[in-house]
Amino acid sequence: MQTADTMEVPQLKPVQDVPEIDLDDIDKLLESLSPEELEELNGDFDPDNSLLPPSQRMKNQTSKAPTGPYHRKKLLDFLEKKAKEEKDWEQNKPFVKEIRGKIWKPKVEPKSKEEEEHLETEWDDILTAASEEELVDLAAVLGFHGMLNQTQYYAGLDNMKIEAGGFQAEALSENKTLKVLNVESNFVSGEAIVEIMKAINKNQTLQELRVANQKPEVLGNKVEMALVKLIGENSTLLRFGIALEFPDARVRIHEKLQENNDNLRKKRVGKD
After folding, report:
1. What global pTM score does this model have?
2. pLDDT at 211
3. Looking at the structure, do residues 154 and 172 belong to the same domain, yes or no?
4. Residue 264 is assigned to a structural domain of this protein
5. Is residue 221 part of a domain?
């Protein structure tokens, strides 16, 4: 066994002198090579040589002669046709549906059985026969409105429905002090908006009305033309928030509101 001190170091062979090659004779050297040697020499490329373009960093492996210039559409048509004509590869292993891993199953929680004893009283018949307005008045008397949080309050407002005309139209027909009315983001139909506008025209004290973003998004030509006629008869309305579909109605309403604003400005500065 040899130790590190007695280990023999292999001796390297002396480098032999390489004869110098004259670059002027490179053509003669290439002419003296056989076709096999030229092919081997032609395939000896450095793939990481940055001095060569990428298309020349490997040898040409196609021995066929070119059939013509490159035509992308013809190439794609040929590949598609060839793919359709070729038969599918035979599967060595037949397909078998296998379920691997653990199948997730939701945890089934036992339902708690709550036995509720309901005793019918005379109040049940009264509450069943009560109208919605009577229930609202009863809730106000009992103070139930104070038990609602802000989220529940606004959720209740979103579900309010105003039928054609509705209580607002009746109240507006008697109004002499209200200046601004906002019923946006609600369930007001086009007919209800027309009824509200008719009620506003009785006393003509309202200056701003907002009825945009309703559940029925499209009002229709009949409703929009009716609103144009009613607003044309109103001389106090200054702002009207609504989404109109037809440009004619939009322009005519805008012109009437502009006229009302101009008349108010003239009245404020003391002009006739």
Report:
1. 0.41
2. 87
3. no
4. yes
5. yes
